[in-house]
Each structure stands twice: as structure tokens, then as C-alpha cells.
């Protein structure tokens, strides 16, 4: 990690000036490691804390926010009786839009990027539709299946990514990469066949969420290929979140009814619901913020590795909290799937090295 530097006197170095200028012109794709300009930006908290300690705190915050939003969603939708996943997702989007506006426009956590054309706006809107589908399906699945099973299915994202990449872009991977996907599929088959609380609808919408997440990553790589159109992850969230909220609102009203009125009515007798919803929506934003901070202070590869660990840890914590039954075969299936994902990541790295 590169520490922030503070200059005590004005200096002029042509090579340094040209390097900084080049870094300033870079625009990142998701989830690329941020530019040197972003990495070297001075944070007040970081200037007084050991870099290693700061990174450890950020990674711990990433784990807590990612696992926390899963547990809160599960509690709200399954145990608390708040059975409105579309409205809940809309609250998440409104929260992300509000916090992103403050973080970028007032706190300057990343430089503000602007939408440059109507074409770029339509591309972001297309990504937003896929994003809405994926998040709503993921939240809906938590009403019907345990978090542990949800995470096992979510771990198969690389399998769907490879399929969509081949179908949409005709991109072929090496035989080693495809071979590494076999344990991913085999593991989820084992976990599905031995899941005590299996629910077909929950399983299908979770598959929809996982495939939607994979489709978004492939489509994003196609649509935002122009360097001038690429947006940093936090800027992309700033524009996608309000679009997503507007898309979800009519669906929530049509499918779930007057949820806002029902929520306010419930809040009159149980104010805890307000605390739960605000806390849940805030943690949903923290997931995106800590994704960025982990990438900034480590790398995109580290974030990918942590994602594999998070799935296993979230499954374990959820079993401890909600006491849902698990079987040895189910645990074995999940372990095989995660191992397959690790093998897939390693095979992809070797494939890229060979290509270059």
C-alpha cells in the first residue's frame, strides 16, 4: 500500500508532473484497482493510523457490512414478517443514492464523473435494469431459503459468467478454466440435494439473482468499453441507485401494494421497524463503500479472494444465528463449490498470463 505524502515546500519535477497528469486522465472500470491519484489521496483518519492497521480495519468492516446486510435482510423478510423484498430493495437504492451524493459531492471520496451523452445514459440504464433484477431476486430468495444455501448458490457466479461471456461475446476460455468450473456445479448439486429447507421458488429466484449478477458483469464489459464512458464504481453507483429506485417503485406498488402506508402504520405500534429499515439501508450502502475501500487499499484480486471467504463465513454465522439445520452432505457440497471457485480464479490468472 502506498502511503499519502505531504510536501513541505513547492517542487517541480517534469517527470512527476507528467505521471500525475497521466494518472488524472485515467478512468476506471469496475472493479479495477483505483488510480494512483485516488490511492495517494490524503484521508484524515489514514494520516494518523498505521497503514496495516487501517487496512485490517477496512477488511473487517467489509466482512461485517457484507454479512450484516445478509443477516438483516433474512431477519426482516423471514423472521420479522416484513415480506416486501421489492420495497426493501428500493429503500437500499434510495440510501445508496443519498449517501453517494454526500460522499462524492461533499466529502470528495472520489472525483465526480459526469454522464457525457444520452448514449452513455442509456447504457447505464440497461445495466441498472439487470442490477435491479439481480438484487430483488437475491432479497426475495432470503424469504424462502437459508442464508447458507443462498451463499452456496451465489458462489456459482463464475459458472454463469463463463456461459454469458460465451453466448454474448463468443469468448472462449482455456480448457483448464472450464475444467475448474466442474466442481462449482458438482458442489451446488450436492448442496441442493441435501438442503433440509429446500424451497423450489427460493432456489429459482436465487439462481436468477446469481445469473443476473454474472450477466451484469459481462454486459458492463461490452457497453462501457469506450474510455470516456467508463465510470468509477462509486460514480456508477451514484447514477444507478436513483434509476433503480424509480424502476422499482411501480413494481412495488403493483405487486406489494401500499407498503409505505403499511410500514408507517406498523411503526405506530412498533418503532423498532424504523430502526431496522434505516439500519438495513445504511449497511447496504456500506457494502458498496467498503468494496471500494478494500480495492483502494489492497487490490481487486484481494477483493475476489475475500469474496470466497465471505461466502463461507456468512453461511457459518447464519447457521449460528438462525439455527437452520444443515447436513454433512450440504456442507461438503458448499466446500466443493468454494474450492471450485478458487481453482477457477487461479486458472483465469494463468490463462491471462499465458495470453499476454
From TrEMBL:
Q: What keywords are assigned to this protein?
A: Membrane, Transmembrane, Transmembrane helix
- Taxonomically, the superkingdom here is Eukaryota
Pfam families reported in the protein's UniProt record: TPT
Q: Where are the transmembrane segments?
A: 53-72, 84-109, 121-142, 148-168, 175-191, 236-255, 271-294, 328-345
Membrane topology classification = Multi-pass membrane protein
Q: List localization entries.
A: Membrane
The Sugar phosphate transporter domain sits at 56-345
Give the protein name, as stated in the record: Sugar phosphate transporter domain-containing protein
Amino acid at each position: 500500500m502506498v502511503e499519502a505524502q505531504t510536501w513541505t515546500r513547492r517542487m517541480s519535477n517534469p517527470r512527476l508532473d507528467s505521471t500525475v497528469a497521466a494518472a488524472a486522465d485515467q478512468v476506471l472500470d469496475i472493479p479495477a484497482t483505483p488510480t494512483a491519484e485516488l490511492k495517494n489521496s490524503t484521508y484524515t483518519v489514514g494520516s494518523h493510523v498505521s497503514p496495516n492497521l487501517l487496512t485490517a480495519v477496512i477488511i473487517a468492516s467489509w466482512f461485517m457490512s457484507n454479512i450484516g446486510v445478509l443477516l438483516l435482510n433474512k431477519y426482516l423478510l423471514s423472521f420479522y414478517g416484513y415480506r416486501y423484498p421489492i420495497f426493501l430493495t428500493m429503500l437500499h437504492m434510495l440510501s445508496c443514492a443519498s449517501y453517494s451524493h454526500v460522499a462524492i459531492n461533499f466529502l470528495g471520496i472520489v472525483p465526480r464523473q459526469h454522464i457525457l451523452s444520452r448514449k452513455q445514459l442509456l447504457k447505464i440504464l440497461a445495466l441498472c435494469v439487470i442490477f435491479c433484477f439481480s438484487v430483488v431476486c437475491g432479497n426475495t430468495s432470503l424469504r424462502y431459503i437459508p442464508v447458507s444455501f443462498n451463499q452456496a448458490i451465489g458462489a456459482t457466479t463464475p459458472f454463469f459468467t463463463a456461459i454469458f461471456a460465451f453466448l454474448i461475446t463468443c469468448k472462449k476460455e482455456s480448457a483448464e478454466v472450464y475444467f475448474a468450473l466442474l466442481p462449482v456445479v458438482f458442489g451446488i448439486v450436492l448442496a441442493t440435494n441435501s438442503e433440509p429447507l429446500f424451497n423450489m421458488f427460493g432456489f429459482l429466484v436465487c439462481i436468477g439473482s446469481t445469473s443476473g449478477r454474472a450477466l451484469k458483469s459481462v454486459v458492463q464489459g461490452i457497453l462501457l468499453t469506450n474510455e470516456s464512458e467508463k465510470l468509477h464504481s462509486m460514480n456508477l453507483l451514484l447514477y444507478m441507485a436513483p434509476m433503480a429506485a424509480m424502476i422499482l417503485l411501480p413494481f412495488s406498488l403493483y405487486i406489494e401494494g401500499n407498503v409505505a402506508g403499511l410500514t408507517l402504520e406498523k411503526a405506530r405500534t412498533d418503532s423498532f421497524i424504523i430502526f431496522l429499515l434505516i439500519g438495513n439501508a445504511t449497511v447496504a450502502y456500506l457494502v458498496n463503500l467498503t468494496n471500494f475501500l478494500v480495492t483502494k487499499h489492497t487490490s481487486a484480486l484481494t477483493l475476489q479472494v475475500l469474496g470466497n471467504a465471505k461466502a463461507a463465513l456468512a453461511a457459518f454465522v447464519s447457521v449460528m444465528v438462525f439455527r437452520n439445520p444443515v447436513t454433512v452432505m450440504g456442507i461438503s457440497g458448499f466446500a466443493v463449490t468454494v474450492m471450485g471457485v478458487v481453482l477457477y480464479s487461479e486458472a483465469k490468472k494463468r490463462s491471462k498470463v499465458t495470453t499476454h
